[in-house]
Each structure stands twice: as structure tokens, then as C-alpha cells.
Amino acid sequence: MPILIWIISGIIAGWLAGLVVRGRGFGLLGNLVVGLLGGLIGG
User: Fold this and answer.
1) Using CA atoms, how far apart are residues 37 and 29, in angstroms rounded to an integer?
2) From CA 6, how far away is CA 32, in angstroms rounded?
3) C-alpha span between 23 and 35 (Å, rounded)
4) Alpha-carbon distance values, 22 to 3, 6, 8, 29 (Å)
5) Where are the domains of the chain?
6) Residue 24, class by beta-carbon neighbours within 10 Å (0-12 exposed, 13-18 middle, 19+ buried)?
7) Which residues neighbour 41 within 8 Å (Cβ) at sequence distance 6 or greater?
8) If 43 and its partner were Cys, which of 5, 6, 20, 28 is the partner (CB 3.0–4.6 Å)?
């Protein structure tokens, strides 16, 4: 169950990062994937 929380929090973090950088990120899908990977690595 904790891995699911890491994945969800990573996706949310990627989405929020995409909102912060506006146009300088990887796009919506790219930011979600980067957030997912960050959540898995950080967890």
C-alpha cells in the first residue's frame, strides 16, 4: 500500500511542478511521468 501512496504523491507533485514552471516543463504527460519516477525513487 505505501508504494501506491508514493506513486500518487509523485504524480501530484509532477502536475504541480508543471503548473509552477508554465511552458518550461515537459508538458503534462512528461511532468506526470517525471513525478511518478521521482515518487518511486524517493520512496
Assistant:
1) 12
2) 13
3) 16
4) 29, 24, 21, 14
5) 2-42
6) exposed
7) none
8) 6
Other CB atoms closer than 10 Å to residue 40's CB: what's the count? 12
Q: Which of 11, 18, 16, 33 is nearest to 3 (CA)?
A: 11
* 18 within 8 A of 25, measured Cβ to Cβ: yes
Place of cell 511542478: 17
* pLDDT values of the chain reduced to their tens digit, one per residue, 43 residues: 788 888 888 888 888 887 888 766 677 787 778 888 888 888 7
